[in-house]
Amino acid sequence: MSKIKSISGKRKTVNFFSYILLIVLSAIWIMPLFYVVLTSFRAEPGAATPYFWPKGFTLKNYYNLFHPTSSMPYDFFLWFKNTFIVAVFSCILATFYNLATAYVMSRLRFKMRKPYMNIALILGMFPGFMSMIAVYYILKSLGITQSLVALVLVYSSGAGLNFYIAKGFFDTIPKALDEAAWIDGATKFQVFRKLTVPLSKPIIVYSTLTAFLAPWMDFIFVSVIMGDNHKKYTVALGLFKMIDAKQVNQYFTMFTAGSVLVSIPIALLFISMQRFYVSGVTGGSVKG
Amino acid sequence: MDKLKKESKTNIFKFYSKTFIEGDIFTKLSFIIMGLSNLLRGQIVKGLIYLSLEIGFIYFMVTTGVSKLIGLRTLGTQGQHMEFDESRGIDITVPGDNSMLFLLFGVSTLFIVAAFLVLWNSNVKSAIKAQQMKQAAKKLPGFIDDIQSLFDKNLHMSFLSLPVIGILLLTVLPLIFMITIAFTNYDHNHQPPGNLFTWVGLKNFDTILLSGETISKTFWPILGWTIIWAIFATILNYILGMLLAMLINRKDIKFKGLWRTLFVLSIAVPQFVSLLIMRNILADQGALNMLLKEFGLIEKSIPFFTNPTLARISVIVINLWIGIPHTLLITTGILMNIPEDLYESAKIDGAPPFIMFFKITLPYVIFVTTPYLITQFIGNINNFNVIYLLSAGGPNTNEYYQAGKTDLLVTWLYKLTVDKKDYNYASTIGILVFVISATFALSVYRKTSAYNNEEEFQ
Amino acid sequence: MSLAYLINKRKREVEIMKKGKKLIALLMVVSLLVASFTACSKKEEPAAEKETEQATENAEGDTATDETKKLGDATLKVWGSQEDQEMLGKMVENFKALYPEDNLDISLGVVSEADAKTEVLKDTSVAADVFAFASDQIAELQAAGALYRITLNKDAIIAANSEPSIQAATVGGELYAYPSSADTYFMYYDKSKYTEDEVKSLETMMEKDLGPNVINFSFDADNGWYLSSFFFAAGCQLFGADGTDPTTVTFNDANGVKVGNYLIDLANNKKFANHDDGLLLAAFQGGTLGATMSGTWNAENISKALGENYGVAKLPTINLDGKEVQLSGMANFKLYGVNSQTQYPEAAMALADYLTSKECQQMRFETRSYAPTNVELASNTEALSVNPAVAALSEQSQYATLQTSIPQSGNYWAPSEAFGAGIMNKEVTKENLQENLDAFVNNILATLE
């Protein structure tokens, strides 16, 4: 009896410290984000303050984002729209590429399979921006520089290389299911569409989410592709241009306001999809 | 399986000669006029596609391809220059060759030639197959049958075609273009359109690896730091992230979803925002130092990014902030899948928790996530964002050429390309990084069970 | 297979397009020629009238060309920073009004002066016909063959603009760009902390007790742009006397050592701080900073932060081994260049010339607080005093050292940052100063081959 009590007592202290640890850690994780939000409401301009709590609060930073003027000609709404369009289309394409490649690698056997898998593993290792200039000229010879189409292509084209996680997931779906369907006369495409896809919700969500995020984060490729056409900027590039070293004091609070607006939808998406994300990534290992 | 493959490789010429000898006149002619065998044996659409592609290819080679290949050899002979026009009173630009475009178009043409060879190969195969089937009095598959097979037997072709085109066009072609630049003298003194650059062989590799001059004095130390960084960043993120996941996974912890969300939120904020904010907070006169001074905890600012050693620690630690949530996401599910009885029996044996972690949890999770770990390690070698946005490679040091103490190879070569326009050296460094990471990744990956026991999974 | 096909097809299309374009261009040129011949013979008289009218109109704007007022039809693109777009739009409209007979189609693109080199060299053929850039990029742009040599109206441009600005626009004795505004840094100070007399000498400023936790003077010490002012004050040379010799830097001579010692003492002074640009505002606003070095881009915000106490002045003098010397900042200029690949060189040159004319420089000063390079405007201290920051900049310009623009000068920034940081975090001491200065200089001079 007393032993049980001491165990539960020990458990209580462990729990207590676990909670303390979690609270401290999550505070550390949230603090910078909180600081971004705080800065976005800061009334006084400037890139940094030697104090944490702003001296005055304002909504002006948000207001300015949506009311470009001659002295603050940053059209946030337009950038947001561009990014959204690019994100939607590139995530549709990328998800298809990703799933199709993963399915083929997991289920079908053909001559180039292993070489393809090895090449895919190492191809991503060459620093990407090194080839930016070549990508630019290739897009130019296709006649699509400074267009959102080019961005969609650039962001989705690599998806056929990142199939490993999805392949791991497909590997866990018993092959016997496929075989049964084949015996019933289904084609391989039908098996993919009617059997595999419905079973793969988590990994589809995971792929979609990852692909959807890329256009919101990249500011390097988009600047090479869009050049002088600021009407085609994405939010990431637009925001990044705002804090060009010399203008940093002028626009920093506006920059953080823009960042908050970008982060909110992504965060909401993440939270609602987290369930899938967790099981999507790891589902592939269930049988490992 | 492997043996078969080897045979088919060595016998590829045998295959052609055998096909040529055994083939009837149509098949023989198909070696030159593509698609003829199919065309004349009833596979009209297929034959026409082969034929029209061949005509297209020949037309391309005659009109542009050949000149592009010649251009690839010289990379241009006539530079752009100016001629003064008396009547207009201004210089007139006489356009010249653009070495960079010559190189790019030359490489693209090689791609097209390679693609044509693949096509030609499939044409020969298809020709002899059509002949054999005809001889065996089998019905030849029509165009519709071919299309249908793309949804069944040849599903991999239809599924892979678009992704592979994307990869070839926007990943492989640019990659090969960049690799070739390492063998040229495309540096800041040879910028197009005003200047030509040309092939220099292995000179750049020699300069970087062996010369012992400026750039090689920088390369080796930065390589060392890059590896240290990659090891620490990967392992710390992995272990600490896993521990955090275990902490949240504890039975008694409530609101698991909430805790996870709090950590995962940091992924939703673009890195160029969160890292720039971090940099501001940790600056010498930033919010954190000021706060600590106000509390009287420190006298002088802590030089988070200005002291070389501390800067290196800072970037590793701040990278935890970025990396741990990712590991948390990845490992949560795996941890829940570890069979409970493994722990039970260990408990009965009286194993303390940390032994259980190292003997059960860690091996299990590593077993499952090796591919992820490898990608993470490589990702960290090439972790441009964190370093560039956080410390920009600083603090700079005069021991290095145009680099700082936290510069990774990848950020250094970014500086070399964007700021200094020394593409040739940047590309050479890129190749070296690539060789290092690829060798590492492939050798490790080939040892993993995920690779070797692939078939057993299913 | 479909890849080869696609590429083939695309290539052919591009080729055909190219050929087509050439053909169209040729046709256009021919028809233009024909049209202009016929037009000339018909409209000679009115055109001449127009010319004289405009010539009288522009008699005051001294940079206006005396040559014919006809440029021919042209499609041009101009690059400027995002903030300048509206102003540029107005200038372009004014320019078009000067040539009512020509069909000028002028569009604007956003590329800041700082990014111009990167964008132009990325793809010169699609870069703007006329673009603004910072003067330190001129050597590389010229070397890459991206700039037109300026031959039209050259003497008038040289006469109208200050000598340093012309020097900054010159490469190898030839003029390659049109000066548009001057840029250097000067001193901002809090008038409640210093009097106008006190800000003349850094020693006086540092000696004053402004109270606890107040920084008397700050600058971004690990930034070569500001750090150089101390070395230049002592007479050290960056790339030789005229900044064009890639093998000579004298920052490590006896004078350089004096500067090094001075900076070490400064770093050890608790009343000094290494502030980068981002921290200035808060420090001024909180009343914890006496004075700092910065440029016009911060003027608006600092004046808001300091309110009535907003003060600007030229940089102070420093006492180097008993000798008073004037701090001499780096001077940079914003220039307009004409793309060597432009289809319409004459029209592009006329536009660049106009965009940097007295009229436009005046407009730039009024709307964007850019300091003019036009001698007439720059010497009119009364007019400039409307904007104290620009006035201070103009004054400081006399003591500034032209920022060098040879390709090797790109090597200066990282080593100077390293040296500045070394001083600030006490790694550079009086004992190892010479070594560090030598490493600093060697690294600036380093070449890859």
From TrEMBL, chain A:
Q: Where is the protein situated, by its record's location annotation?
A: Cell membrane
Keyword hit for Transcription: no
Give the record's GO biological process terms. Answer: maltodextrin transmembrane transport
This chain belongs to which protein, by name?
Arabinogalactan oligomer/maltooligosaccharide transport system permease protein
- Give start and end of each ABC transmembrane type-1 domain: 80-273
Going by the UniProt record, its keywords in alphabetical order are:
Cell membrane, Membrane, Sugar transport, Transmembrane, Transmembrane helix, Transport
Q: Which SUPFAM superfamilies match?
A: MetI-like (SSF161098)
Q: Which InterPro entries match?
A: BP-dep_ABC_trans_perm, MetI-like, MetI-like_sf
User: What membrane topology does this protein have?
Assistant: Multi-pass membrane protein
TrEMBL record, chain B:
- A Pfam family of the record is BPD_transp_1
Q: Where are the transmembrane segments?
A: 44-62, 100-120, 159-183, 227-249, 261-282, 313-335, 356-374, 423-445
Q: Where in the cell is it found?
A: Cell membrane
What's an example GO cellular component term for this entry? Answer: maltose transport complex
Q: Name one GO biological process term.
A: maltodextrin transmembrane transport
Which InterPro entries does the record match to this protein?
Answer: MetI-like (IPR000515), MetI-like_sf (IPR035906)
Q: By its UniProt entry, which PANTHER family does this protein fall under?
A: MALTOSE/MALTODEXTRIN TRANSPORT SYSTEM PERMEASE PROTEIN MALF, MALTOSE_MALTODEXTRIN TRANSPORT SYSTEM PERMEASE PROTEIN MALF
Family affiliation:
Belongs to the binding-protein-dependent transport system permease family. MalFG subfamily.
Q: What is this protein called?
A: Maltose/maltodextrin transport system permease protein
Q: State the taxonomy lineage.
A: Bacteria, Bacillati, Bacillota, Clostridia, Lachnospirales
UniProtKB/TrEMBL annotation, chain C:
What is one cellular component GO term in this UniProt entry? ATP-binding cassette (ABC) transporter complex, substrate-binding subunit-containing
Q: Does the UniProt entry include the keyword Transport?
A: yes
Q: Where is this region: Disordered?
A: 44-67
Would you kindly state one Gene Ontology biological process term found in this protein's UniProt entry? maltodextrin transmembrane transport
**What family is it from?**
Belongs to the bacterial solute-binding protein 1 family.
Q: Which PANTHER family match?
A: MALTOSE-BINDING PERIPLASMIC PROTEIN, MALTOSE_MALTODEXTRIN-BINDING PERIPLASMIC PROTEIN
Please state what the protein is called. Carbohydrate ABC transporter substrate-binding protein (CUT1 family)
Per the UniProt record, the lineage of the source organism begins with:
Bacteria, Bacillati, Bacillota, Clostridia, Lachnospirales
